[in-house]
């Protein structure tokens, strides 16, 4: 399904930079204006001062909103202005969902990106295919630079071919940042594409602001994960209520009694919730509902 029309940050005298948004798991691309540049906008070819960047990356500035499109476009605008970033990838999954290679993980996670459509098409729509940096960050929880020359000797043939593809499509310079659960277990991450594709310039951004960028992205995830997951799973109120009762430890019969429904009706809601959340079991659906703040 296509995303709803993008909400935009309401800033006075806003101008809009063109943006290509490649949708989430469904692989549908939409061309539309998405990133508003307000009165703080400056020449993107000139690096900002460290002080100005720190002000933008203040986690207290992240909006409180249930509109996933609005939040996404706000993040893109802030990173474009402060960190030489013009492409963002986001992925989140419940702990225990990794199950092997990242390219398989994406089938069970929720994800969203503004990487160019033609680049994603070259990857058969899967941004994690042979992605050394993504694999590294999901295994170690450490920031990984796409263009780190020390990584090349450690790469497989497929990963080196991916680097060549990245070069071809202007995706050679960037970095991956992890996100964590409250117990500090890795549960996904962000990919940030450098706008300038200038290694020295982007390295300076990372060297100066890596910790602040990481904190900023993790704080953003906390506010974005729930609203975005709701656009993906689209649970009906009764389905969400059933999952909430199951999360509280109730059995099907008890849920049926609490909701004044028959057990068969409760089981039907459970089956629908499993399908919508791409879960093989009810336990998995409940785990996702809790992780993605759906209940």
Number of helices: 11
User: In terms of structural class, how would the helical and strand content be classed?
Assistant: alpha+beta
Q: Provide the low-confidence segments as ranges.
A: 1-42
Helix content: 40-55%
Largest sheet properties? 5 strands, antiparallel
- Mean pLDDT, nearest integer? 84
Any idea what the shape is?
A: globular
Query: What string gives the helices and strands in order?
Result: EEHHEHEHHEHEEHHHHH
What portion of residues belong to β-strands?
15-25%
What does this structure look like?
The strands form 2 sheets. The protein has a 5-stranded antiparallel sheet. Strands 1-2 form a two-stranded antiparallel ribbon. Residues 1-42 have low confidence and may be disordered. Helix 8 (237-247) packs across helix 10. With 295 residues, the protein is an alpha+beta fold. A hairpin with a 6-residue loop joins strand 1 and strand 2 (29-37). It has 11 helices and 7 strands.
Feature tags:
single chain, 7 strands, 11 helices, alpha+beta, 295 residues, disordered N terminus
Brief account:
This protein is an alpha+beta fold and 295 residues long.
């Amino acid at each position: 399904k296509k995303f709803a029309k993008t909400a935009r940050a309401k800033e006075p005298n806003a101008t809009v930079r063109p943006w290509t948004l490649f949708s989430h798991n469904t692989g549908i691309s939409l061309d539309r204006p998405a990133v508003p540049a307000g009165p703080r906008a400056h020449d993107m070819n000139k690096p900002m001062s460290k002080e100005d960047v720190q002000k933008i990356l203040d986690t207290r500035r992240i909006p409180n909103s249930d509109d996933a499109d609005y939040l996404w476009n706000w993040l893109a605008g802030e990173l474009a202005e402060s960190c030489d970033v013009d492409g963002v990838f986001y992925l989140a999954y419940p702990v225990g969902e990794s199950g092997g290679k990242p390219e398989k993980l994406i089938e069970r996670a929720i994800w969203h990106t503004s990487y160019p459509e033609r680049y994603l098409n070259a990857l058969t729509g899967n941004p994690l295919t042979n992605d050394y940096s993504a694999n590294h960050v999901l295994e170690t929880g450490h920031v990984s630079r796409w263009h780190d020359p020390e990584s090349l000797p450690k790469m497989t043939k497929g990963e080196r071919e991916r680097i060549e593809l990245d070069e071809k499509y202007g995706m050679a310079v960037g970095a991956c940042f992890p996100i964590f659960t409250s117990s500090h277990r890795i549960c996904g991450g962000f990919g940030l594409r450098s706008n300038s594709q200038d290694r020295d310039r982007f390295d300076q951004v990372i060297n100066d602001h890596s910790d602040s960028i990481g904190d900023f992205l993790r704080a953003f995830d906390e506010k974005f994960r729930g609203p975005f997951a709701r656009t993906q799973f689209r649970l009906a109120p009764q389905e969400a209520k059933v999952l909430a009762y199951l999360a509280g430890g109730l059995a099907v019969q008890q849920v049926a009694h609490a909701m004044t429904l028959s057990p068969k009706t409760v089981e039907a809601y459970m089956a629908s919730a499993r399908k919508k959340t791409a879960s093989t079991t009810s336990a998995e659906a409940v785990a996702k509902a809790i992780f993605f703040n759906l209940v």
